[in-house]
User: Fold these one by one.
Assistant:
Number 1:
Amino acid sequence: MPAALEDGIGTTNACKHYDDVRHVPWDIKKYYHQRYSLFSRYDDGILMTDTAWFGVTPEPVANKVAQHLSEGAPASKAILIDCFAGVGGNTIAFARSGRWKRVYAIEKDENAMLCGKHNARLYGVDGLISWFHGDCFEVVKNELEPLSQHSVIFASPPWGGPGYSTDPVFNLELMDPYPLDELLGSFQQFTQEVVLFLPRTSDLRQLASANHSLGRVKAVHYCMQGASKGICAYFGLFASP
């Protein structure tokens, strides 16, 4: 059976570490075979919820995104806010970059957040991350407002919608439950420096027309083994990656 590992953070039965493919649910097996691409330290006891397997950013991609944010963000920005932190894939990469004075990770799913805390400790960066359990829009507005002028927001939202994996060009207003205008409109009230990780088939015209920040939106494909895993859209005063 999958192990729900005990640690000082406290985890639940939903926080799982599969060490035998025979115990992996059928719809996760594809991702289980890619587990070392998701977390290179998987065998050290990485925990994930069953849902997290479908959305965690592969570690090489997370590291490259973290590098580009570190190099491209204005020097005055010292805080990184990860608004859909999940089990910690991107959050850990941001903390490991050494660029940020503090990383704030927000996650609505408490079980995923507990996994993320555990995983950050495995990578030795738990002391650099503050975790918030709740709705990211509420946390940013009510808890983090004093940090706005010093912050960059990164968000890898649920993509949802029926067509993100099949449509040649994906309508970003169909993302479920957070369409592009809602995401960007909310986050840009807090800071102009916003980075969204979006489907590889995202409509670039929508990104350009939705941009209300200074400067042009910059869109970068992130690939593994020749295949795009998604697009990062950089809004605000980022140097080109």
Number 2:
Amino acid sequence: MNNLTTLIKRLEAATSRLEDMVPAMTDQSAVSNGVASLPESGLTAPGADARGGAASPSQQTLAPLPPAIDDFDALINGDVKTFVNMSEEIGGLVAEQSAAVLRAFAAERKFLIVTTKAKKPDIQSPVYMEVLKDLQATMGVVNDIREANRASPLFKHLSTVSEGIAVLIWVANETKPAETITEMLRGAEYWGNRVIQEYKE
């Protein structure tokens, strides 16, 4: 998680550029780099290229991604992909929840792409809420899987992930997102420790 905190600090500068989202929302080409797929991950969405948009010859001339987005891609292609792969080995609800986690990270990636191309709107505006909608929805799915399966023997696992996914909402914190993440991780650590203890016994 230290890697995530370090990354968040590097991405704080990007949040200050969350302006003028109306053009970005109306011009889909402006955010074509931000859809839920990642380079070299093997997790590209159907019908999308490695940058996240629909594949086309014109995309061969896309400008390089900002360093912060490259770092975020490295996080997803590394730790997140490892988590998803291991969850798929367990299968069932764990695999289902991990797929929702991946979609949440992809939604956050899209949001971050927008921040590099747009000006900051009023955080109470419908435009701002629209841009956050996909992230909030996918995070909600992660939590819904937990809440719908309280009787599952894997409830502690589901709770660990459900509590941890809240860190992605750091993008809505305009002051100290890294500190917010540290606070939010406490719930995940609590459930994670319970999982560790269970499998020690």
Number 3:
Amino acid sequence: MLIGDHQPVEHHTKNGKAYDLCAIVGDEDTEMLCPIRYVFDSLPFQINWLKSQPLSSSLFWEDKQGSCRRGESLNSILLDTCAASLPLHTGLYTFRQNKYWRASEQATEELLVLFAEDERCRGILLSNNKSMASLAEEQLRSSVMDTYSRFSTYMFAEAEDKRAQLLAQCVVLIFMFDDLWENASKEIIEVTGNFFVDRLHNTMPCTAEDSPLEQRIDAIRGGLLGGDEEQGNGGAEILETLINFCHRPEPVSVCNQFASIREYLDYRWTDVGNSFTFACAKFSIRSHADQHHPALRPLLRHIGDHISIVNDIASYDKEKRNFESGKASSVINLVDVIMQQERLEAEPAKAMAYAWQLFTEEAIRRDLNRLKESGMMGQEEWRFVDACLGAARGNLFTSVVIKRYGGEGARIDRKGGEGGGLGMEMG
């Protein structure tokens, strides 16, 4: 199906806006579509002085088989977001969804259950009077596709079945530790971080007393390294970046300590886990490209900035509510930085954050042109770049269709009724 040639069949509404979700895929892909139950517009107001420009990596390279141009893939389906009229504020396009979302959903749920039932996790108390186990229990109260699983489903869309399940579980690990890191004392972070790190390093010998959670983390580690034995080296990099993420500096308490947006984004680049994201992108396509190559550094810096900015715009309202209610100890967000520095209210600060996002997209365009003109990039490097851009696109798409940011207020109606959503539900 070509963008724009599908006639509306069934409309879903949210706050008076119509979303033609039946147009998001062709008939041949309907059974593989992950249910969409929420649509969240992070910029629901008019910003007439900003306009995004179309940007796609396929403008800069072409797969020898031409499959990227034709939208064909063994592991993903193309999402026609234009026909569906989803509020995607970006110049990036060509959004895709992994075909194996059901298996990823199951793997995610299994891992969260292990966290919820683990005795060690029940004993790790956070500053908000919750435990790591209760954090997992919260995620299990609704479909995990509305919390964690959507990120890997859209960000790493080209992963085959087994790799998709491993990536979904790695996303759970980084989210669980991030929640701990933001809401625990330094002592608890060190003790728990060492628990994670020791399992990921494989420095703790396997024993009959290992908990099911410990056994699962060992299995995830083995699966990542086993994937590298087949092809690529992204699995080892995922483990390395997860370990580094566990060892990053303590969270900052206030955002007004940053002297500039650039200083904040430099901090956020690590805080949001961009190295982990790029390692996952490598693993998803069996790549051995060097993400640390000097020629790629400016591009990956800008792609990482994009991921950070999109996350901050989408999550600001949720973070602010959590802080004001005592559920979070701080607000670490670009919108808040702009509000503090420029003395603005939230809406104009969001608009300025969006302007920085579009400025970053233009920087990505310049980086791609530079790489194309240099002639330094082979097909393997371009595949990796495309996977990283796919992660940025998937991150943005997830921010729109996940419950995490908009909550129940973002649930869409079906033909004007309650509930709804489009796609094939799990049995």
